[in-house]
Amino acid sequence: MGLFSFLSGNKSNKIQEFKERGAIIIDVRTVNEWNGGHIKGAKHIPLQEISAKISEIKKWNKPVITYCASGGRSGSAARTLEKQGIEAINGGGWKSLQQKLQR
User: Fold this and answer.
1) Rhodanese domain: from which residue to which, for each copy (predicted)?
2) DSSP 12-50
3) What is the pTM (predicted TM-score) of this model?
4) In whole angstroms, how far apart are CA 58 and each of 5, 13, 29, 34, 46?
5) Which CATH number fits the domain 25-101, given the four candidates 3.40.250.10, 3.40.50.10260, 3.40.50.620, 3.30.70.1050?
6) How far apart are alpha carbons 16 and 22 in whole angstroms?
7) Do the Cβ atoms of 27 and 54 come closer than 8 Å?
8) Which helix (H) or strand (E) holds 26?
9) What would the mean pLDDT of 22-43 be, rounded to a whole number?
10) Can you give the residue ranges of every domain in the chain?
11) What are phi and psi of 11, to 5 degrees?
């Protein structure tokens, strides 16, 4: 098992843990990307709007899983949320996250 396999497995475990704790899933992609398909039950908050929605997200009082197309924007969103005291994890790309959530 390589280093990246280990890290990937660890991320899957963290995603499952968040899921079991009732995590809110946030899609940070554009409206056009969202309209092209998304994870059922996810909330759509484009990356540019995350900072403006911090107080609303805090009120949910739940951990957050962010996702986008490949993981770059969702990583940025997760870091922004963490800096504001919200427990968040980067779920990566939406299709791979969808598979992990179905386990």
Assistant:
1) 19-103
2) HHHHHHHHHTTPEEEE-S-HHHHHT---TT-EE--GGGT
3) 0.89
4) 32, 24, 20, 23, 17
5) 3.40.250.10
6) 10
7) no
8) strand 24-27
9) 97
10) 25-101
11) -65, -40
> CA-to-CA distance for 71 and 86, rounded, in angstroms?
19
The distance from CA 89 to its chain's CA centroid, rounded to whole angstroms, is 6
Angle between helices 3-20 and 94-101 (to 10 degrees): 60
Beta carbons of 53 and 99 less than 8 angstroms apart: no
Phi and psi at residue 101, to the nearest 5°:
-70, -25
Q: How far is CA 66 from CA 1, 29, 72, in A?
A: 27, 10, 10
- Percent of the chain scoring above 70 in pLDDT: 91
Query: What tokens appear for 93 in the block?
Result: 């790309």
Please count the residues of the chain: 103
Q: Which residue has the tokens 């554009």?
A: 30
